[in-house]
Design brief:
Elements lengths: L5 H4 L1 H13 L8 H35 L6 H20 L10 H19 L12 H5 L8
Helix pairs in contact: 3-4, 3-5
Protein name: DUF29 domain-containing protein
InterPro entries: DUF29
Pfam families: DUF29
């Protein structure tokens, strides 16, 4: 039988207690195993957030390229806003840039972008892989041509 811990009962109360123990130097009372899991989870949660933001940006760029008649200032504003949010995320967490070099991450993100563009605009027949470089994708002045 496993022993129930404060972590199991109320993770917020547990986190506050762990912070208090850290601040007061009571290291021998820390729940090391759960602390390690939580620290790892913080890092893991950042990658999906970046992927989600990137997939939305890529979907906007796909719609821009494949629906030139529907281009508007509001689309430009959405593209700019998404680029800005990605740039801020990368500035705050520079190690996330490693994701931008990972083929699996790109494959998943591109797939999500295609799904978004299909769901939102009924578009299809996209390239199997993202045809744009990361520099193009994040360049505030770049837009794909039709």
């Amino acid at each position: 039988m496993t022993r129930e811990t404060g972590y199991d009962r109320d993770v917020i109360a547990w986190a506050n207690e762990q912070a208090r123990l850290l601040r007061t130097g009571q290291f021998d009372r820390l729940d090391i195993e759960h602390l390690a899991e939580e620290v790892e989870d913080v890092g893991k949660s950042e990658q999906p957030e970046l992927a989600s933001r990137m997939a939305v940006l890529l979907a906007h760029l796909l719609k821009w390229q494949f629906q030139p008649a529907r281009r508007s200032r509001s689309w430009e504003a959405r593209i700019r806003a998404r680029r800005d949010s990605i740039e801020r995320r990368l500035r705050r967490t520079p190690s996330l840039k490693q994701s931008l070099d990972a083929p699996d991450w790109w494959c998943d993100t591109w797939g999500d972008a295609q799904t978004n563009a299909i769901d939102e605009a009924g578009l299809s027949d996209f390239p199997e892989q993202c045809p744009w470089t990361i520099d193009q994708i994040l360049d505030p002045d770049w837009r794909p041509e039709a």
